[in-house]
Write a structure and sequence with these properties.
Order of helices and strands: HHHHHHHHHH
Strand content: under 5%
Largest sheet: none
Number of helices: 10
Number of domains: 1
Distance between the termini: 32 Å
Number of strands: 0
Radius of gyration: 18 Å
Length: 225
Amino acid sequence: MNFIESFEIAAAILALLVAIIGHEIMHGWVAYKYGDMTAKSQGRLSINPLIHIDPFGSILVPLMTYFIPMLLGASSGFLFGWAKPVPVNTNTVLRNGGYNAAMQVSLAGIAYNVFLATLTSVILVSLAQPGESDSLLYIFGYLFVMKLLLINVVLAVFNLLPIPGFDGAHFLTYLSLKLKMNAIAEFFVKAEPYGMIAIIIILVTPLKIPLVIWPINTVLHLLLN
């Protein structure tokens, strides 16, 4: 492993932490704006990564999604993962802001990822690709911005999928309740324990191509062109 590859891995890890920790903090922050003190009282609005790291979602899953494709012959994998979910007292949010507030809490993390992806795409297109004469700091910065763009797009796409337990499903649950389509909301609630199985199926089968790879590539193309 040369130093560029080491830089790339370090940049990817840092970018992943920025993406997933900010994603969770935004859920708690929007809930706090609607009177829910749960995340704040538990210190989950802090940027301290140790508070947010989940052994499975923040360590094992990123390692699997990044390195296993490379072991199978791909040039590189992509980083996907998540932090510990920030606790939200939905009853408080609903009481103070109704279903619209609950939907805002559900989409807060995605909005953060979309904002960062847009910002980093603007920065990336303005930067020159690093060459051999550039400083190590510039090379690392370029790699970090590139990884931050990719990871935030990946997170936004995944979380928009209506997978039980993920943000897209939470949003549809509250939208269904608002529209009095209770059967749909009940389905998402009952299916939530199986959301992780759905993620694994998507990641290890060809389903990831139309559901994940194509949307990611489309968004990246739009942002960079």
